[in-house]
Structure formats: structure tokens, C-alpha cells
């Protein structure tokens, strides 16, 4: 194996001999941006990896737009791939599981831990199952080993991630709840955050572990829309009423709740939008990842007639954005003592997130970087909380 440390990373592409593009392919515009980028960069050895390697890598390779293409499973071979003098196309196995333990650790506060890959759902607008493969879980032992190692090195907050995290363990005869119980027992773990969950995957076993204080008091559960007609068009598995009941149950337990929501999907008539909006108002939400629908070739939604023009989608986006900002503000007005993990310092102020995933801006003469601090006195501002420490 060659030594990758002999390469220097440069900030300016003009100085680079080799450019590795780790691409996204989630929308058509992601593909267009990639193609535009490739057309601009001249006389460089370009290696393409990431999701677009799996969707349009073959085409770009045949058109000679890139020197080499390698899939997700081949990323660990990057040192040998960088050395290649002949063009190559090594797409690998889409359904592989990367179980490498990371030992080169620099930061000392929070770590992202991938526990799962791929997705077995078939949401109409989404290309992800085609470019990330079937749902598969990382081994529990490896995850525990990785977190233990990081906790021993000073990390205290762990963010579990995956494409469809709620499916964790379905293929290995375990579950997310069982995994979490083991993680809570690791010395040094002070807070566990979870990536996005699907409503249909939250079962009683999961609800039972929610009282553990090490779990962040914020969950992100993908609703995507709040009208059943649209959820059917989107080929989603969740329905409004049952998801609303779930959200109410979680809010009663004191959780801040975030969701994903798409506006402007084909079929979103004014009536459906209004109905979705009225339903959404009932949800005890505090955060939202709001998207304007963007057509993705190769998906079922791409075959539908786009009947929502851009300006209307923009207006709908704004209405929902303002609704959830207001909800978030009202949530924060109910003040309570907070535990904040300070991440960094920007423009003379420290920044970190509390257990409800709200940002705290902190003025202090101390060096608070990577510290856990308890805050009981703070000001609720429109966009975030503020305190002096
Ligand atoms: S669950 Fe998420 S990743 Fe899977 S198809 Fe639906 S939107 Fe895509």
C-alpha cells in the first residue's frame, strides 16, 4: 500500500495535480453542477466518487470527462487509485458495509457515527435507494468499539447517522433501541443525538428508551407532508393522523421535534397545500428541514407533470418556514436550565447547541471551546438563545 501522506492537500484547484470529486446526485441540479464543474476544470486528473459515481459515473467516464471513477466501497483504496496512470472505472459493490474504525482523531467534542447504510423505502421523489443500495446495518460490536475509542479520546457527544436509521438492526436481528442501550453504558458518553427517523419505524421498544437522560431531548422524524393525498403521491409510508399522535406523545415527554417537509411536489394543488398547512399547525414542531421539490430523473415523481410553478413553491416554502420559526421561538420562551456543548468560536462569540438542538451564542472571557456548560440565565432571541458566561 502506498503512503497517502506523501500528497499535499491544496486549497486552490489550480495548484492540484489530482482532483477528487466526492459528488452528490440527489437532484438534477446536483448532476448539472457536477457537469458544469467538470467542463470548467481543464488539464487535471479528475477522480469521481460519491453518489454521482453510481448514477452518471459510467456516462462521464465514457465521455472522457473524468480520468477515473470509484464507488463508495472503493474509497478506502484511494491511495492506490491516486497512483494509477491508466484510466479506471471501479464502481465496486453498492451494498458493501464500511466497518472501519477511525483512529486518527483530532477534534474533542462530538463525533458522527455512521451506523447504517442504504434504504428499502421507495419514496417517489428520491434517488437514494438507487445510489446507496439496500438498508444494511454496521455491526453492533464495531459501533461500540468505535464509540468507546472516541470516548476514551475525549469525545463526549455522539451523533448517530444513517440513510434510514430506523431500519438499524432489521438485517442483523437487533434494533436501534438495543444499540442505544449499549451506547448509554459506555464511559464518557454524555449525549447521544440521532439523525433522521421514519415515523413508521418508531415502535414501543424505542419509546421505552426515551427516558434515558443521555439521549438528546430532540428527535428528527421525517414527515415530508401533512396531507394524506400528497403522502400517497409521494409513496410515503406514514400518514398524518398516526404521525400527529406520535409527535404529541413525544412532545408530552418533553422532546423538541424536527421534521423534513417538501413543498412544490407535483400534485400539490392550492387545496392540498392549505390542508397540509392547517394540519402542520397542529404538530408540536420546533425544527424543520424544508425543501422545495426538485425533479430527479430516474424517480417516479420525475414522470409526473410538474404543476407547481417555482414562484408558488417559493411562497409556500416561506409560509411554512415562518410557521416553524414561530413555533421554535415559542418553545424556547418556556425557559429551562440548559446543558450546552460549546463547539467553536465565531466573531468573538462561542456557539453550541443545547439538548433541544437550539443554538446558544455565548459571550465569555474564558476559553469554552469543547466544554459542557450549564446555563440557567439566558435571553431568548428571534433566531437563537444568548447568554453571558
Ligand atoms: S426513506 Fe428517505 S432515503 Fe429512503 S427513499 Fe424515502 S426519502 Fe429516500
Task: Write out key terms for the chains shown.
389 residues, alpha/beta, pyruvate-formate lyase- activating enzyme, 3 domains, six-stranded mixed beta sheet, 12 helices, binds iron/sulfur cluster
CATH class of the largest domain: Alpha Beta
Instruction: Give the number of DSSP strands.
Output: 19
For the record, what is the CATH homologous superfamily label of the largest domain? tm_1862 like domain
Q: What's the mean pLDDT score?
A: 93
User: How do the strands line up in the largest sheet?
Assistant: 17-14-15-16-19-18
Distance between the first and last residues' Cα: 50 Å
Strand percentage lies at: 15-25%
CATH topology of the largest domain: pyruvate-formate lyase- activating enzyme
Number of domain units: 3
Bound molecules: iron/sulfur cluster
Helical content band: 25-40%
Number of helices: 12
The rough form would be described as globular
Textual characterization of the structure:
- The model has no long low-confidence stretch (mean pLDDT 93).
- The protein folds into three domains: 13-90, no CATH class; 110-333, tm_1862 like domain (pyruvate-formate lyase- activating enzyme, Alpha-Beta Horseshoe), CATH 3.80.30.20; 338-388, Beta Barrel (OB fold (Dihydrolipoamide Acetyltransferase, E2P)), CATH 2.40.50.
- The chain has helices at residues 28-40, 51-55, 57-62, 78-83, 128-132, 140-152, 176-184, 204-208, 228-233, 240-252, 270-282, 310-333, and strands spanning 18-23, 45-50, 68-70, 88-90, 110-114, 116-117, 136-137, 157-161, 191-194, 196-197, 218-221, 256-263, 287-292, 338-346, 349-353, 359-363, 372-375, 379-380, 385-388.
- Helix content is 30%, strand content 22%.
- The longest helix has 24 residues, at 310-333.
- It contains twelve helices and 19 strands.
- A six-stranded mixed sheet has the order 17-14-15-16-19-18. Strands 1-2-3-4 form a four-stranded parallel sheet.
- The protein has 389 residues and is an alpha/beta fold.
- Iron/sulfur cluster (SF4) is lined by residues 119, 121, 123, 126, 128-129, 163-164, 198.
Amino acid at each position: 500500500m502506498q503512503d497517502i501522506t506523501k500528497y499535499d492537500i491544496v486549497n486552490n484547484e489550480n495548484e492540484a495535480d489530482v482532483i477528487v470529486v466526492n459528488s452528490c446526485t440527489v437532484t438534477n441540479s446536483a448532476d448539472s453542477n457536477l457537469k458544469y464543474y467538470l467542463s470548467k476544470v481543464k488539464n487535471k486528473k479528475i477522480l469521481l466518487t460519491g453518489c454521482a459515481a453510481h448514477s452518471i459515473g459510467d456516462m462521464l467516464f465514457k465521455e472522457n470527462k473524468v480520468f477515473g471513477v470509484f464507488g463508495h466501497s472503493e474509497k478506502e483504496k484511494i491511495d492506490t487509485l491516486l497512483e494509477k496512470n491508466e484510466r479506471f472505472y471501479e464502481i465496486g459493490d453498492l451494498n458493501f458495509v464500511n466497518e472501519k474504525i477511525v483512529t486518527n482523531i483530532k477534534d474533542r467534542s462530538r463525533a458522527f457515527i455512521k451506523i447504517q447504510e442504504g434504504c428499502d423505502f421507495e419514496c417517489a421523489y428520491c434517488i437514494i435507494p438507487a445510489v446507496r443500495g439496500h438498508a444494511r446495518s454496521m455491526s453492533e460490536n464495531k459501533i461500540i468499539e468505535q464509540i468507546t475509542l472516541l470516548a476514551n479520546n475525549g469525545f463526549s457527544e455522539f451523533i448517530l447517522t444513517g440513510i434510514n436509521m430506523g431500519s438499524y438492526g432489521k438485517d442483523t436481528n437487533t434494533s436501534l433501541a438495543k444499540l442505544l442501550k449499549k451506547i448509554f453504558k459506555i464511559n464518557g458518553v454524555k449525549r447521544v443525538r440521532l439523525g433522521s427517523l421514519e415515523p413508521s419505524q418508531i415502535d414501543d421498544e424505542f419509546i421505552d428508551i426515551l427516558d434515558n437522560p443521555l439521549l438528546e431531548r430532540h428527535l428528527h422524524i421525517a414527515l415530508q407532508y401533512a396531507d394524506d393525498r400528497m403522502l400517497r403521491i409521494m409513496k410515503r409510508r406514514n400518514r398524518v393522523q398516526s404521525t400527529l399522535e406520535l409527535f404529541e406523545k413525544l412532545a408530552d415527554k418533553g422532546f423538541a421535534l424536527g421534521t423534513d417537509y417538501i413543498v412544490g411536489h407535483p400534485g400539490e394543488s392550492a387545496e392540498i397545500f392549505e390542508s397540509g398547512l392547517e394540519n402542520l399547525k397542529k404538530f408540536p414542531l420546533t425544527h424543520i428541514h424544508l425543501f422545495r421539490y426538485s425533479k430527479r430523473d430516474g424517480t417516479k415523481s420525475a414522470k409526473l407533470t410538474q404543476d407547481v410553478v417555482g414562484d408558488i413553491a417559493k411562497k409556500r416554502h416561506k409560509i411554512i418556514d415562518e410557521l416553524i420559526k414561530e413555533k421554535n421561538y415559542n418553545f424556547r420562551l418556556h425557559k429551562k436550565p440548559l446543558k450546552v456543548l460549546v463547539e467553536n468560536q465565531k466573531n468573538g462569540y462561542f456557539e453550541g447547541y443545547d439538548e433541544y438542538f437550539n443554538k446558544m451564542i455565548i459571550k465569555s472571557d474564558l476559553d469554552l471551546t469543547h466544554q459542557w456548560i450549564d446555563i440557567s440565565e439566558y435571553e431568548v432571541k428571534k433566531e437563537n438563545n444568548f447568554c453571558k458566561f
